[in-house]
Design brief:
Elements (H helix, E strand, L loop, with lengths): L1 H6 L7 H33 L4 H50 L2 H6 L2 H22 L2 H19 L5 H44 L1 H6 L3 H53 L5 H42 L21 E8 L10 E8 L4 E6 L5 H6 L9 E6 L2 E2 L5 H6 L1 E5 L7 E2 H5 L8 H10 L3 H6 L7 E2 L8 H14 L4 E5 L7 H14 L4 E5 L11 E6 L2 E6 L1 H7 L1 H11 L8
Parallel strand pairs: 3-10, 3-11, 6-9, 9-10
Antiparallel strand pairs: 1-2, 1-4, 4-5, 7-8, 11-12
């Protein structure tokens, strides 16, 4: 339960509310425990002696105790809910803040579907446990201690029954707890899988429809859903055995009180009121153990969820700003790769890039060509430190990028990717996402450079047009041009265009290139492209093959010296036609 104990660190900001909730809970327990003793008084001092005043006074005191218990319970619940909800909110925010610090390497290992489960189902489990800790889990031991004490003071002759039953119930609860936690962990893992299948089906619904795979996706979901159901059934089968067994032991204890108490009453050593009070206190002492037993399932589930939450919160970003990182006084945009080796497995035995040496001068346009899997995207991902190199170094103006604060480094790098990601909001908000303080004039200028101004102006609401979920109301080319405008608006010293015009027609692409030359003449630009026509005028063309630079130079130089480049050129432009690579 170590992970669950750590969760209570998030309760500290609300400790006074939690303490007051526990004080109210203690008052409620005292009021509840007073009622059996008052019942004994009614029977032994009132009914047996036919004293209506004792009956009336005791009845009024019982009513007062019941009212106090109800008021304390309501107040405790209100405070407990407030503490639990605020705690869940803080944990949820902590997870989101932590995820925002993750590097691509962290996100490669922790899938988005798992993160969604942790911020929803797992946090809900933990929230319910905080709530129950301020109510049931605290109430039960207080009830147990108080009722045992009252049972001893009421009838020490029957108190031995509780000493027999408590170890039996304790062993039963311990056995269940040892089996419940791993079972609940598996439930959450099955839920991760279900969320993953659902997420993939929803995000790829157009592909599913296009390839008529509706039944296949439904079958995938059914398998994941059935796995979750079966695992949940196994868990609740444990509960199905535990709870009735514990209630049987409770009833057995009551039978023992009635049996032995009845014999003592017949012998004249016991009063009827004592028997009634002893039965109540026996129930009050055993029932908390039953409650705790019933809570072992949710408690095990919450502990498993807490462990999964701290798996995220304890993860250290693979890429971090070094403590001694310094902000350069001036950034011109010279990018240098020196003997770079990189692997997603943190070792150069299976390197994605190896022995890469490359320099891009300020204002130059460097085009990167290569087959799928040659390392093009991996190369440009090293510039803003989405990943760190395993060997060698990447430098910006002669300074290792690892020695530059991350926010400073990435603030100087503009990126437009092939898969243009847009957020809910207006087109204007999406363009100035990286520069929220940009003026409307700056937004329009960036849109014009990206050749997006005309189609944006054609919308009835223009730049205030609401973007649908993931840009569903825009075409692929429109989304890419908005993404390019977003990258341009930050006025970066290094601009990365990762196949960002793949959905744009050739004529528009040429216009974008010319606009970029005018607007970003002092910016170092890296262009990854499939169409060789896109990069013919680049200052430098780099051909990657199996993670190594196979050729480097201008178009004319490569046509004269590189067989690989000649083959790429011939395959696309050899017959005078431009075809997608």
């Amino acid at each position: 339960m170590k992970s669950l104990r750590r969760i209570f660190g998030f309760v500290k900001p609300y400790k006074w509310q939690a303490i007051l909730a526990l004080v109210l809970l203690a008052g409620m327990v005292v009021a509840d425990l007073a009622i059996p003793r008052l019942t004994q008084t009614v029977i032994d001092e009132g009914i047996d002696k036919q004293d209506m005043q004792v009956v009336g006074n005791s009845a009024l005191m019982m009513l007062g105790a019941a009212l106090l218990s109800a008021v304390f319970a309501i107040a405790n619940t209100l405070l407990s809910v407030r503490v639990a909800m605020n705690t869940a909110t803080d944990i949820r925010s902590a997870i989101v803040r932590k995820v925002q610090t993750f590097s691509f390497g962290n996100l490669d290992r922790i899938q988005s579907s798992q993160l969604l489960t942790r911020t929803t189902s797992d946090i809900n489990m933990v929230m319910m446990m905080v709530l129950m800790s301020l109510r049931i889990l605290t109430r039960a031991p207080l009830w147990l201690i108080g009722s045992v004490f009252m049972l001893i003071t009421t009838s020490g002759q029957l108190a031995w029954l509780i000493l027999v039953m408590m170890p039996i119930i304790g062993v039963l609860v311990g056995i269940f707890a040892s089996k419940a936690r791993p079972a609940f962990m598996k439930v959450q893992e099955k839920l991760d899988r279900l969320n993953l299948v659902m997420q993939e089906s929803l995000e790829g619904v157009r592909v599913v429809k296009a390839f008529v795979r509706d039944e296949h996706e439904s079958a995938r979901f059914e398998r994941a859903n059935e796995d979750l159901t079966l695992q949940s059934i196994r868990v609740h089968q444990l509960m199905a055995v535990l709870i009735p067994t514990m209630f049987f032991l409770v009833n057995l204890s009551i039978v023992g009180v009635v049996w032995f108490g009845g014999r003592l009453a017949i012998l004249g050593d016991f009063n009827v009121g004592q028997i009634v009070a002893s039965v109540n206190y026996m129930m009050f002492s055993i029932f908390p153990l039953v409650m705790l037993g019933a809570m072992m399932g949710p408690l095990a589930a919450a502990d498993a969820s807490a462990e999964r939450i701290f798996e995220v919160l304890d993860s250290e970003p693979e890429v971090q700003s070094h403590p001694d990182a310094q902000t350069p006084s001036r950034i011109a945009g010279r990018v240098t790769f020196e003997d770079v080796c990189f692997s997603y497995n943190h070792g150069c035995d299976e390197a994605v890039l190896s022995g890469v040496n490359l320099m891009a001068e300020p204002g130059q346009t460097v085009a990167v060509l290569g087959a799928t899997g040659s390392g093009k995207s991996s190369l440009i991902n090293l510039i803003p430190r989405f990943y760190d190199v395993d060997q060698g170094r990447v430098m910006l103006d002669g300074v290792d990028v690892r020695d530059i604060p991350l926010d400073v480094l990435r603030g100087q790098v503009g990126i437009a990717l092939q898969e243009a990601v847009l957020f809910s909001g207006t087109i204007r908000d999406n363009i100035r996402y990286g520069n929220p303080d940009a003026t409307d004039e700056d937004v329009v200028a960036a849109a014009q450079a990206a050749r997006a101004h005309d189609f944006i102006s054609a919308f009835p609401d223009g730049y205030d047009t609401e973007v649908g979920q993931r840009g569903v109301n825009l075409s692929g080319g429109q989304k890419q041009r908005i993404a390019i405008a977003r990258a341009l608006l930050v006025r970066p010293k290094v601009l990365i265009l990762d196949d960002s015009t793949s959905s744009v027609d050739v004529e528009t692409e040429v216009k974008i290139e010319k606009a970029l030359e005018e607007l970003m003449d002092s910016t170092t630009t890296f262009v990854i492209a499939q169409r060789i026509s896109t990069v013919l005028n680049a200052d430098k063309i780099v051909v990657l093959e199996r993670g190594q630079i196979a050729a480097e130079g201008t178009h004319a130089e490569l046509m004269a010296s590189s067989l690989i480049y000649q083959e790429i050129y011939e395959s696309q432009l050899g017959n005078g036609e431009v075809r997608n690579g």
